[in-house]
Amino acid sequence: AVVSTQSTGYVPLSEEGGARAQMELEDVKNKKSTENSMSTSMEHLARNEVDVWDVVNEELDTANFSKPWQEKSTKGKVLTVFWLFVKLVLVVASLYFFICSLSFLSSAFQLLGGKSAGAVFAKSKILSNPIIGLMIGVLVTVLVQSSSTSTSIIVAMVSAGIVGLRPAIFMVMGANIGTTVTNTIVSLGQSMDRTMFRRAFAGATVHDCFNWLTVLIFLPLEAAGHPLERLSDLLTSSISDDDKVSKLDFLKVITKPLTKTVISIDKGTIKDIAKYCTTGSHYDSLKCIAAKNSSMMKDCGDKDCGYIFGRAGMSDTTTGVILLILSLLLLCACLTVLVKTLQSLLLGRMAQTLKKHINSDLAHPFAWLTGYVFIVLGTGMTILVQSSSVFTSALTPLVGLGVISIDRMYPLTLGSNIGTTATAVLAALAATGENRTLTIQVAISHLLFNIFGILVFFPIPAMRRLPIRAAKFLGNTTADYRWFAIVYLIIMFLILPFLFIGLSFNVVLLYVVIALFLGIALFIITLNLLQTHFPDRLPAVLQTWEFLPLFMRSLQPYDSVFSRLICCRKKVTDDVSLNVVHVSEATGKV
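Structure (tokenized):
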């Protein structure tokens, strides 16, 4: 009987350990058929002796404990303070350039896909379908990498009378989903460490899970009875043109000096394509052609351009590709420095103290208020940085490091949803022009959508656990199959929107596909519940998923394909914290 260690060798177990391992071998043999039907992520959980999600009670590495301050010499104290200062400067600098890299990434996507996004918005005829409006909101936000940009285009189209209020509400729901792609991409930076990647990906996708679950409830309700439209109309009925506020702009004041020296995007080009290339009273062939042929970069005229790529004289596509590569390299470099520096800062007693304070509840009898306090904190921080993507992307590495638990990340994410829509409301109140009330109504509908989603998926513990468990499931899956994260991004944020937009040209086929998706999902959920709670009431063939071919019930067949790719090869060694008993397929020995 042997147990694997981080090295390739094996360490003999004691007599008692060998007996225990032999019992585990017998258990493996008796339950072999059941285990075959389980996903690898669930098998992985079954093998863990330590809950990887319990960051507060995580075992500390005592080797990293430094001497107490009182026991250090004068030289040791000076060096400690000096290196602490250096690390704090590194954290601030890497965080600053990390935020700038997100801005560059957004600009790159706008250069590459901005005109396509405008063309998608121009198809106003198909926007009357709620599902298509939702998917267009998702797709456009992914293409421009900014929910602020996509919602501003939607508001501009409503203000110009190109799009009605109802389709706009469905599109901002989609923008709510599309904005989560950024922090999901950021989580890939921790893919080399399985435990960190598990937590980081779960911390990023808890935002996705909440948004999708909220859409599943409120999209049909809004399509049937228009409650958001009616309530937002009631709230905006008393707003006059004199009720204006100043537009907030905190974070950009700090980042603009750098970002504007590199690239400057003219968002008006996207709005012009969406406005003048549509089929309707606003259609203007000359202005449409001019908008499509113009550059996405701001025209400097006769003056010397104040930004680097403006002086380069390259096309939008070339500039976009170069900027995309540079922004991803900068993002990865900043993320690496940020994570490594935080790891060195958050060692030993400091890590445990910080984890306990962040992840612990308020004192009794106010413990139930803890989540709501963090929702308010997330709202305030998002309003401060003017971007939910920036806020959640900055938190994602901390979740991977185990500083913030998934249960604490969830209310912070909900707060960021409210914060970004509150910012949109303030921007709408600062706007002028025709249909101002409608633009405010769109922003308030977006805010109400998120508030109602929180009321459904947070106060009740059973409902609160749904997005958290879904995110943990995705985290467990990516821990075993790193390629799953890339596939998830491509399917959820590209293939799915394009699929439904393509099906929109045949409404009957569209609803048949939706009914098929819902039917399969309902069957899987129902059968899983019955297998868990009432297996004896099911026929023998339905008590496990073995009646399906392996490729339909496991990711293992796909793993054998993706694992051949350089980016997705599995590490030879495993995490030291895992106590995994290996069973040889050939000999049956432990």
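The chain is about 70% helix and 0% strand. The mean pLDDT is 76.
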